[in-house]
Amino acid sequence: MATKLNLDKLDLQIIHEMMETAEISYADLGKKLFVSGGTIHVRIKKLQEFGIVKGTRLNVDLKQLGYDITAFVGIYLEKSSLYDSVAKDLMKIPEIVRLNYITGNYSMFIEIVTKDINQLRFVLHDELQKIKGIERTETFISLEEGFNRNVQVAPGE
């Protein structure tokens, strides 16, 4: 959108609270912030329309579902101008859950989640290496995720 949304204290409080506990009902959040549930609903809709709130996600422990391998891959591109076409091809690989265009040694950095090492090998060898524009890659396997958290948005004191 061309116009920028001016966030007030209530908007920031809503964002803060929903990032902490997204399953809270609008009515309960309204009580906590001393406004009506309808006001919360209208504010959330506005935040969605401006692209500030991009939906909600279920936080799942993937290891409990058998996804035991998390790997990070640094990608060297033949030319940085190939980013868009390579990104489009990477998006087609469902095991890739995150892509960042970065500075430093690599052009791109991706996160891959697979059930086992054989599936990771397939993604790396049979899918990733066949994408035109990728010069080479460097893979890092995560041994453990220490923590994963949201940025603390100031609720506007």
Describe this structure in words.
The protein starts with 8 loop residues before the first helix and ends in a 16-residue tail after the last strand. A 4-stranded antiparallel beta sheet has the order 2-3-1-4. It has 157 residues and is an alpha+beta fold. The mean pLDDT is 91. The chain has helices at residues 9-20, 26-33, 37-49, 83-91, 117-127; strands at residues 69-77, 96-101, 108-114, 134-141. The protein contains 5 helices and 4 strands.
Provide keyphrases for this structure.
157 residues; 19% strand; single chain; alpha+beta
Mean pLDDT, to the nearest integer, reads 91
Residues in helices, as a percent range: 25-40%
Shape estimate:
elongated
How far apart are the first and last residues' alpha carbons, in Å?
28 Å
Total number of helical segments? 5
List the helices and strands and how they pair.
Elements: H1 9-20, H2 26-33, H3 37-49, E1 69-77, H4 83-91, E2 96-101, E3 108-114, H5 117-127, E4 134-141
Antiparallel strand pairs: 1-3, 1-4, 2-3
Helix pairs in contact: 2-3
